[in-house]
Write the structure tokens for this entry.
Amino acid sequence: MSKLKSGLTRRHFIKSSGAATLLYSLLPGYVAAAKSAVIKKTIPSTGERLSVIGLGTSRTFDVNSTTAAQSPLLDVVQAFFDNGGQLIDSSPMYGSAEAVTGALLKRTNNKQNLFAATKVWTNGKREGIQQMERSMQRLGVDKIDLMQIHNLRDWQTHIDTLVEWKAAGKIRYIGITTSHGRYHDELETILQQLPLDFVQFSYNILDRDVERRLLPIASEQGIATLINRPYQRGSLFRKVRGKSLPPWASEFDCVSWGQFFLKFIASHPEVTCIIPATSKLKHMVDNMAAGYGRLPDESTRRRMIEFIESL
């Protein structure tokens, strides 16, 4: 795991000993999973286990450096760690998100299992090296757990640097990302050629295109998967607005639409970690609850799809 550089910390209002209390007190009726352990998936290249619910920082962590702007996010990050979270994903593309994440980590407790993931998003070898070094400084870590090539940008150049950095111990894992379907054909080829540990792409209950080729290829090649846009940028919530959760959702320990969408993704055998982004504490706690309890089986997954498509 990433080793954080020294910095000031404080005990925030969510204490690690009360993490389960927070998780379940904010989710009335959610009892079945209260005694279960956090769901973890295996990183194929090493066998390391990773909590299935991570944290994205796109848009939500792009705030200014004032205490007032960052204070709500401190609550979010603390709840993430106190409820078993590990992987935080960022990028230089996300404005101030890396620097804000680093500042919040200095003030957060219970973060010993941090799995720091970010990206290189520029052209050129020297520019890529400089950008990655800045990312390490901004995040406040001595080693990046996962460095990814963002949206395939200049991947032919950056892959050599990432391989060198991994061999030198500067990073632990190598990955590549996309959030655009137009890159999927190229990504298929890349996954079969490069020495990758992770791939990141979009996947949710209505956008299932990656089930056709990318998820199977990742499985064949032993590549872990990170899932972005699990709520289709909020459109899934708009689709179910005013609709009641089906009663059979309780069969897989689900009490909210957010958990419904996340548990659908988490139940896919080739999904390693999901990275929903939020700036709200109640949403963070709800997201983390999806990482506990039972997951839907294959027949239930089909039922979930049919239900959502019928709305």
Q: What stands out?
A: The first strand starts at residue 40 and ends at 42. The two ends are 42 Å apart (CA to CA). The beta strands are 40-42, 49-51, 55-56, 87-89, 115-120, 144-149, 171-177, 198-202, 224-228, 273-274.
